[in-house]
């Protein structure tokens, strides 16, 4: 049984036309509740993902048991 905030799906959207230097959106969706966390980003690299997870997911919801990504 999966509990809330225990499994997250994470993915980039884009590239989109540049707006204020941003061309990507990084999304994380909780598997159970469908809660969404998202940020606009300038790049789609690993550092962006690590910082996003650290500050937007782990600090608020704890460290999940699983992250699902297509990359």
UniProtKB/TrEMBL annotation:
Pfam families with a match to the protein in the record: rve (PF00665)
Entry superkingdom: Eukaryota
Gene Ontology biological-process entries: DNA integration
Signal sequence extent: none
Residues in Integrase catalytic domain copies: 1-71
Gene3D superfamilies attached to this UniProt entry: Ribonuclease H-like superfamily/Ribonuclease H
GO MF annotations in UniProt: nucleic acid binding
SUPFAM superfamilies: Ribonuclease H-like
Name listed for the protein in its UniProt record: Gag-pol
Lineage: Eukaryota, Viridiplantae, Streptophyta, Embryophyta, Tracheophyta
């Amino acid at each position: 049984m999966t509990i809330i905030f225990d499994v997250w799906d994470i993915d980039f959207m884009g590239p989109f036309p540049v707006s204020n230097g941003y061309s990507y959106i990084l999304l994380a969706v909780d598997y159970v509740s469908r809660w969404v966390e998202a940020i606009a980003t300038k790049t789609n690299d690993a550092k962006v993902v690590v910082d996003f997870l650290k500050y937007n997911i782990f600090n608020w919801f704890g460290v999940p048991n699983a992250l699902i990504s297509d990359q």
